[in-house]
Amino acid sequence: MAQPPPGRHRLYMPDAIVAGLPDALGPQDAPPTVQPWHQFPLPQPLGRPLPDSLTCKPLHPAIVRTQPQGHTSTAAQVRNLPRHEQLHVVRRCTHMWDNLIEYCDPNGAGVPIVASNQVAQIRPTIHTRLNLNVNDTLCPLPSGPQQAEVIDRLFGWFIGHARRKPSAITSEPSVQDEVHAQIIEPLNMLLETRYISRNEPGLGTDSPFYPQWGRSCPRAHLTPSVRSKAGFPDYILYGSPQLYHHASVIEVKTWWAYSDREFMNIFSSATAQPTTGIFLWSADSRPAIMLRQLWGELHFFQTTWGACTNGHKMIIFAKNLQNELTISEVHDFTEPQLHRALLGMCFASIDEKLGAPFVTNSLCPPQHRESLWW
Q1: pTM exceeds 0.85
Q2: Which of 88, 100, 218, 282 qualifies as a FRET site for 26, CA 20 to 30 Å off?
Q3: Measured at the alpha carbon of residue 341, what is the angle toward residues 340 and 346, in degrees to the nearest 5?
């Protein structure tokens, strides 16, 4: 029986699959399928044209909403972590965001990796099929027909996203709804264009696709170590159906419980000492409370990468040393490159789980980590 043709090594972002948009791919980039595509990139839909780039819709507060005082307190099992498991140092990496965007682009120039005192201009990723001394069968491309089917769904999602009206935000769960609709859904589809599913046994073609973003499971994740749902991330990137095969996490807040200013004050003396970056573990400022929670999620869910948003701002962070957290600069929720940066985070976290070396150090180079604030 003939096997379906393998897929193409392209990044099929929603704004790259529609004709007439600035970043549109060419006809030669169509995934190979059993039947030739009638047209690629796909034609503009009826009605007004699609926007030039993919961005999140801005979120608007409803008149009736939760109070500004509402915020998650640090779970006791996080606050009481032994000293050697606590967060010690906070760094800012001004290059992380752009490096993640570069990391998810198979046609990019690459980011520098430092290893054994030598610098090589490569992207150390499994998903880009570069030589990492890692067997490529760990992460093969999906078939052309699978890519084509997902592109069709991405096209439909992009039309719906562009046409949808803004939602009224009443609470943290309604921000989570928007994050799911505007970020999680397209990320999950984009992952399907890059990976062959690690199916659950016995379910055949009806099996959920992995890797995928999903919710935590209290029945499985409530353990003697994690006894409170306050320590759970809002979304987890599951690398496979196996428990604790988690690649990265996303935490969602509201901008009235954790303001834009408090996101900016992550990089301030209210959170960590200037120059040294020594984290104030017992501090009760909102930024310190948030970082303790994020650190606890990485620690208990055994992940290295994550992101956090309040619906207005977004940060990406990585545990690059045993007790050190490196954080990107603060970016807008509606920034045009946000989905690409988050997709780069997905690829990086999956690659690390599959054994790719030096990923975090290449994306957060030691020479670009600093704690220069007041």
Answers
A1: yes
A2: 100
A3: 90
